Structures are given as structure tokens and as C-alpha cells.
């Protein structure tokens, strides 16, 4: 299991703040460095400004589209971001969907296939990006230059004489927080009635989207689409939600030890084809159902993590479980001082044990500091 998507779920639900110490600074030579202090003499973009700029840019696109002859029976709007920090707006109307269906997918007969095509952003006829946002798009052009974040040195590199900074972004935006800000943008667009100028269908939907369908259907769409409308537009989701709730209800009858054993296969499911992924749910949903266990979950996870500190050569299976048990700690509520100390001790042991546990060490130290 990729626990990254559970962490992303925590960001999208507001359970983990996007704020991180420092600023990522882009320089004229294209390099990017982290500065823990607020830099001087350079434009700084923080979360509120990022969202405000996106809202204004999207309004520019909506306004332009509303003046076009294509503003008829608009059924969907999506603000999309991918892992390369490219941000696009997708819009489609009924006539263009029907043309695509007839001209390219006339062999589709199954209702679910047709509905899937209808909401497939890659098959939407209207796509917009930064250049369609007027002056507000310039920020997105700079933002995309931070795409290779994972190759940056994570240590601080203070400004040096002769450095020529172009722009600085709050570190939390660059480090995955932008997903939550994309979602917040659509929430604000809806609250501001920004779609009123569009000639929409009765079941028009506006939502944020990403490269991960499970995140989209499991979290993002549910933040901006009312449940009844969500089930109307995606009828298969209702039955999947019933099945998912039954799975959760079963697991909630188990102890912390029993439920972690029950989830053992799920933790190892790298194909994302089993439960709950078959129900269009994401990794976050696996961990969220553990919250009711509270402190007993923390005790069980810490005990299991301790068992791995004595293994000389860790296997892939061990790494998977270590990261899953650490992620589960985020859903165990407030840890006791003793449990936080145990996290710190585990971090030190893992640091000495394997260089492949560097992220586990960072996460345990972060949990111990909460």
C-alpha cells in the first residue's frame, strides 16, 4: 500500500496542516533551494494568495467560456492538478460529449462505460491552462517550475551573495499542500456562485481532480458535490458505498490487534484492486476507520514497530508494514508522553538499522513532536 495517498487524504480533510517550515526559492538559473527563514527582496507566495490567484484565474476562464457559443448544457467543470504541478481547467457540454460518443465510442453499449466516458477528463473537449487565466496565470507558470521537488536537497540552503531569486513559495504548498489548495479553490468558486454565468444542466457538477481516481471519487468529489447529486451522476457509487460501510462495520467489531491482522493483505495490495479500492475508496479510507480504536491502536502499532528493530535484514514486506503502522499512528488520537518518547526511540533505532527507513525516521520524529 502506498501510504502517500493516506497522507494526502489527511491534507485534503484538513487533519494535517499544509504549513511546513521554510520557503522553496526558484532562482534565475532554474535551481530551487529551501530557505527556512522568510526571504527578503523576492516575491513570496503563501497559501491564501495561491488560492486567491487560482480563484481569479478560474473566474477568467469561466467568464470567457460563458461568452462563447459552447456555453450550452454544460454538465461538468473540473480543476485538475497532476504530480508535475501542471494545473488545468476542464469543461464539457452535452453536445460535445454526444459527438465524442458517436464518433469514437459508438460501440459502447454498457451504461457504466458511457458514464465513465462522460466524465473522463481526457475526453473533454474544452481544456484551459495558465495562458487562459490572464495575468493570474503567471503564478502557475512559476509554480510548475517546482515540478521536480523530490530531487531537491531537503536541507536548508540560505541565500548567498550573488543569488538571483525569482519567486518563493511557502514550503507546504510545494510539498503536496497544493492538492488541498486546488480543492479549496473549487469550494470557494462554488461559494461565490462563480458558475452562475454558465448554461448548466440540472445535474451540473464542479469538482477538483488529480491523477488518482480513488482520491477523486473517495475524497475530492465528495467535498463539492452533494451526496444525492453524486449518486445521481455516478449511480454505481451508491452500491459501492453500501459495500464499503459493511466492510467498515465488520472491522469496527475487532480489536486493534485483530483489525491490523485483518488489514494485513490490504497493506500488501500494491495493485489497488481489492477492498476498499474496488469500491472507489483510497488508502486514507483504510486508516480512517481505525480512529475509534484510539490509544489501543497506538499501543499495538508501537509494539509491532518495535518487533522490526531486531531484524538484521528487512524484507520488502517488512518495509511495507513499518510504513503502514507509522501511518496508522496518525489516526490513534493524542499520544501519551510515553508513546511519543517511544516514537523518538524507534526513530533512532530505525536510523541505525537501514538507510531505506529515512522517511520512517522523519515521520516518527514528527509524530513524537506533536
What is the topological layout?
Blueprint: H1 4-12, E1 23-27, E2 32-35, E3 43-45, H2 47-66, E4 74-81, E5 87-93, H3 94-104, H4 111-118, E6 126-128, H5 138-144, E7 165-170, H6 171-191, E8 200-209, H7 213-224, H8 227-233, H9 235-251, H10 256-262, H11 264-267, H12 283-288, H13 295-308, H14 316-329, H15 337-353, H16 358-368
Parallel strand pairs: 3-7, 4-8
Antiparallel strand pairs: 1-2, 1-7, 4-5, 5-6
Notes on the protein architecture:
With 370 residues, the protein is an alpha/beta fold. The protein has helices at residues 4-12, 47-66, 94-104, 111-118, 138-144, 171-191, 213-224, 227-233, 235-251, 256-262, 264-267, 283-288, 295-308, 316-329, 337-353, 358-368; strands at residues 23-27, 32-35, 43-45, 74-81, 87-93, 126-128, 165-170, 200-209. The strands form two sheets. It has a four-stranded mixed beta sheet. It has a four-stranded mixed beta sheet with strand order 6-5-4-8. The chain is globular and about 65 Å long. The chain starts with a helix and ends with a helix. The mean pLDDT is 93.
Amino acid at each position: 500500500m502506498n501510504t502517500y495517498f493516506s497522507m494526502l487524504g489527511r491534507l485534503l480533510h484538513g487533519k494535517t496542516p499544509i504549513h511546513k517550515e521554510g520557503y522553496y526559492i526558484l532562482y534565475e538559473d532554474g535551481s530551487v533551494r529551501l530557505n527556512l527563514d522568510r526571504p527578503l527582496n523576492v516575491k513570496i507566495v503563501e497559501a491564501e494568495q495561491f488560492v486567491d490567484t487560482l480563484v481569479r484565474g478560474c473566474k477568467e476562464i469561466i467568464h470567457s467560456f460563458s461568452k462563447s457559443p459552447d456555453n450550452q448544457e454544460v454538465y461538468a467543470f473540473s480543476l485538475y492538478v497532476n504530480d508535475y504541478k501542471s494545473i488545468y481547467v476542464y469543461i464539457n457540454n452535452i453536445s460535445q460529449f454526444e459527438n465524442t460518443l458517436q464518433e469514437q465510442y459508438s460501440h459502447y453499449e454498457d451504461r457504466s462505460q458511457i458514464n465513465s466516458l462522460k466524465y473522463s477528463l481526457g475526453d473533454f473537449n474544452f481544456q484551459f491552462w495558465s495562458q487562459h487565466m490572464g495575468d493570474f496565470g503567471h503564478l502557475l507558470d512559476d509554480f510548475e517550475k517546482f515540478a521536480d521537488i523530490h530531487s531537491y536537497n531537503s536541507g536548508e540552503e540560505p541565500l548567498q551573495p550573488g543569488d538571483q531569486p525569482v519567486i518563493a513559495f511557502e514550503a507546504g504548498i510545494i510539498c503536496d499542500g497544493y492538492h488541498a489548495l486546488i480543492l479549496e479553490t473549487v469550494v470557494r468558486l462554488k461559494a461565490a456562485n462563480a458558475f452562475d454565468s454558465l448554461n448548466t444542466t440540472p445535474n451540473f457538477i464542479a469538482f477538483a481532480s488529480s491523477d488518482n481516481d480513488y482520491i477523486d471519487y473517495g475524497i475530492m468529489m465528495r467535498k463539492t458535490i452533494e451526496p444525492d447529486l453524486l449518486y445521481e451522476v455516478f449511480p454505481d457509487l451508491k452500491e459501492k458505498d453500501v459495500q464499503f460501510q459493511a466492510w467498515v462495520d465488520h472491522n469496527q467489531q475487532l480489536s486493534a490487534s485483530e483489525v491490523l491482522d485483518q488489514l494485513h493483505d490490504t497493506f500488501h495490495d500494491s495493485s489497488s484492486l481489492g477492498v476498499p479500492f474496488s469500491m472507489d475508496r483510497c488508502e486514507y479510507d483504510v486508516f480512517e476507520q481505525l480512529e475509534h480504536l484510539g490509544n489501543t491502536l497506538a499501543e499495538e502499532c508501537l509494539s509491532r514497530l518495535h518487533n522490526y528493530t531486531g531484524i538484521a535484514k528487512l524484507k520488502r514486506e517488512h518495509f511495507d508494514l513499518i510504513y503502514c503502522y507509522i501511518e496508522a499512528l496518525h489516526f490513534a488520537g493524542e499520544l501519551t508522553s510515553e508513546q511519543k518518547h517511544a516514537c523518538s526511540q524507534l526513530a533512532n533505532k530505525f536510523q541505525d538499522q537501514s538507510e531505506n527507513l529515512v522517511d520512517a525516521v522523519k515521520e516518527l520524529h514528527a509524530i513524537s513532536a506533536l
